[in-house]
Structure prediction request, 482 residues.
Amino acid sequence: MNSTDNKPISVYNKIAYAAPAFALAVVGIPVYVYIPKFYTDVVGINIGILGILMFSVRLFDAITDPALGLMSDRTMSRFGRRRPYIGIGSLFVAISMFMLFNPPDASAVQASIWFGVWIYALFLFWTAVVVPYESLGPEITYDYHDRTSLFSMRDGFLIAGTLAAASSPALIQWTFNLADDPQGQRAQFFWVAVVYAPLLIGTCWWCVYAIRETATADQKRVTGLLQGLRYVSRNRPFVILLISYTISAIGNNLPATLILYYVAYVLQSNMADAFLLLYFVTGIIFLPAWVWLAKKIGKKQAWLTSMVINTGAFIGVFFLGAGDVSLYGILVFVSGIGFGATLALPSAIQADVIDYDELMTGSRREGQYIGLWSIAKKLAAAIGVGAGLSILGWVGYTPNAEQSETVVFTLRVLYAGVPSLCNIIAFGIATAYPINSNIHRQIRTAIARRNQGETVSDPLCPDSVDCVSAHLNQPCNASIER
Prediction:
């Protein structure tokens, strides 16, 4: 397949590509939510040490994400650039997860060392799989609308996998009738590892077997990290997309962090798990509708529409109080309608800005873009967790007690007000994003013509020629008709 091949891929290949997202979701709620409590309450390590290790591993990610993205961009092998990392890395992810989920009976110091070694190993190998895996997506198809379908399926599997991973400990406890004691909790995580280790390896190897990487631009021209960052900073569509997505993601991570607190202390209900289930399931159900809408009105307009729906619902949530459970359920459902789109559509849009980078640089640098995108996602999650919980502590939150009016009001602001404001800001920034289906078609045509030795113009700067030197030396800020 060359850079102008827009042939849609088969449903089988889309499923094969999406499948690893379901299994990789285990490095999500189980690791971020369940494992820390398991290690402090059952294994016996100090919560302060655990907090330092969890924070430091996120800083570690900030280095490994772009580094591994650059490595995969520069890799040249008979198996491609991405697939060797996905196939081999999945084995080490499975081993690291199994070891982390099954700590030995040991002293607190030994348990802390065990946790530190295997949490770092898990995140390193997970990055070694996920960054090349996500970088593979934009290479699979260059069709503007087929990308929306592909990434919607991938992120739909991710949502379903998150839901399955979140419920797996409780499901295993019920299936094996395990006691809610230290021995029973160790058995829970043992069986989670037993299920997910082969599932993770199997789905990754299915993807590696089914998906063939494409020959694109000359990878000898792939830049170093610092020069690559300079090129990225001059990719105006990507900068707009990244800033908008990051601001929106910061807002969206606050409700994810605070939903248990909001439902318990603002609504005074114990139905948080049911609301989470409603939100995830609604997001999955409506994903095909967003694929259809994006094909009708364009990815950007569909993404903006999903942000309006999500924001409108959360503005209403701000005004709820004790006992408003039914109304909250309705608003959660409305918000869930846009949930899947807020994940899948930015990913599909990102693939198009990587094509624009190919036009600027003459090389395919998905890995570097995905690495930066991954940092933005993790930064947004860190801010959501850190800021949300810290602010609650500052205003006087007391665990398992009736909260003051100040705490309740702060919860409403953080859970609904701030996310709505973030989405409004992100919406305003996203309106400046310039690539639509027509512009993308011009970009792909320009790449093909330049690869044949012709001089071409930048579709975002129609009056300029020799787009690489013109754009990189004097970035164009011209607007285009949309």
